[in-house]
Amino acid sequence: MNLRNIYYSLSPKSRFLVRKLYYYPVDILDKIQGRKHKYVPNKGDIFIGSGDFIAQGKHHLELLKKYAGLKENHTVLDIGCGIGRAAVSLTQYLSKEGKYEGFDVVEKGILWCEKHISADFPNFNFQYIPLNNDLYHFTEDKAENFIFPYEDNSFDTIFLFSVFTHMQPLEVQNYLNEIYRVLKPNGKCLATYFLYNNEIENKISNKENKINFPYTRENYRLMNEKVPSANIAFKETYLDEMIERSHLKLENKIYGRWSKRTCEGLFDFQDILVFKKE
Ligand SMILES: C[S@@+](CC[C@H](N)C(=O)[O-])C[C@H]1O[C@@H](n2cnc3c(N)ncnc32)[C@H](O)[C@@H]1O
Q1: Per DSSP, which regions of 105-236 are E strands?
Q2: What CA–CA distance (Å, rounded) separates 117 from 39?
Q3: What does the alpha-carbon distance between residue 262 and residue 66 come to, in Å, rounded to a whole number?
Q4: What distance in Å separates the CA atoms of residue 10 and residue 33, rounded to the nearest whole number?
Q5: Between vectors from CA 82 to CA 122 and to CA 235, what angle results, nearest 5°?
Q6: Could you tell me the distance, in angstroms and rounded to a whole number, from the CA of residue 109 to the centre of ligand 1?
Q7: Within a domain: residue 76?
Q8: Beta strands 249-254 and 271-276: pairing type?
């Protein structure tokens, strides 16, 4: 059993605790030495992935401006906002006319965002929505039936960074339908995925990729059988069908480096898709 599998064998709460304990000495040292940035959580609390918190957030903002046409006065929705990585960078971009809404299934992320972001930026609002996700939060309530708590046609821009990479097919379909409902006409949504076709299935079988999905299901592949939401890759044609059912129009697809596709201009790590409500 490798370290990643041991980590996944823990409950979501235990995973958070392990992380907190592992980084406790670093966090204490940062605090004592005054290295703490006001809008960066302690390392032990950052449950959304590794990398430079501020630099990643800025990168997300650049992607939104470049591919989703984000403007300063937009009303935006950050689905699976985690612990505010994109929100922190958006505080430096959205104007007072702009409005930010974010929701997530992990309460500690939302509490941090309310305390550190909403307190200083009242046009930033966060909601804790306790839905089941076997990587992040155990509960009865299912994301596949969840109705977003927003009116129809509310948002200019919606985004999901590394969220559909942790959600099951019925959940993704429901979220795409809901995104269509709450987007304004001509509004755009940017979301990241792991997508595969036959070429990539061969690479997966040959273990050529850094991130692997060895468990095959009919239209998707899993990284870990016991924790299906640990990471999930979708068959590209299957996702196309889901998009069509949602009535969203696919506007752009920028393949990522994860899959080592034989094509030009591989860009981010994950695949980036941009949808439009026409
Ligand atoms: C890899 S993290 C990315 C967080 C954030 N988007 C970012 O880039 O910093 C995945 C996030 O998706 C959230 N998530 C998982 N299932 C969800 C669901 N059904 N609805 C909303 N958020 C969900 C998790 O709690 C977690 O915060």
Answers
A1: 124-128, 155-160, 183-193, 195-196, 215-216, 220-222, 232-235
A2: 7
A3: 24
A4: 33
A5: 130
A6: 10
A7: yes
A8: antiparallel
Judged by DSSP in three states, 132 sits in: coil
Q: Is residue 106 part of a domain?
A: yes
Over its C-alpha atoms, the chain yields an Rg (Å, rounded) of 18
Ligand 1: centre distance to CA 167 (Å): 9
Inter-residue contact 201 to 195 (CB < 8 Å): no
Torsion, Cα 226 231 236 238, to 10 degrees, reads 40
Specify the amino acid at residue 183. Answer: L
**What whole-number distance in Å separates Cα of residue 191 and Cα of residue 189?**
6
Q: Please give the pLDDT value at position 149.
A: 98
Read off the pTM: 0.96
Lookup: tokens for 117:
């972001």
Domain membership of residue 13 (yes or no) is no
Residue 58: which CATH number?
3.40.50.150
Residue 159 has pLDDT above 90, yes or no: yes
Average pLDDT over residues 96-122: 98
Residue 181: domain span: 51-276
**pLDDT for the residue numbered 184:** 98
Answer whether residue 271 is part of any domain. Answer: yes
**Which residue carries 């401006």 as its tokens?**
65
CA distance 23 to 19: 6
85 lines ligand 1 (CB under 6 A): yes
The rounded distance, in Å, linking the Cα atoms of 255 and 193 is 9
Q: CA 127 to CA 94: how far, in whole Å?
A: 19
- Total domains in the chain come to 1
pLDDT at 1: 60
Q: Decide whether any atom of ligand 1 lies within 6 Å of the 46 Cβ.
A: no
Q: Which residue type sits at 15?
A: R
41 CB within 6 A, ligand 1: no
Q: Report which secondary-structure segment, H or E, holds 252.
A: strand 249-254
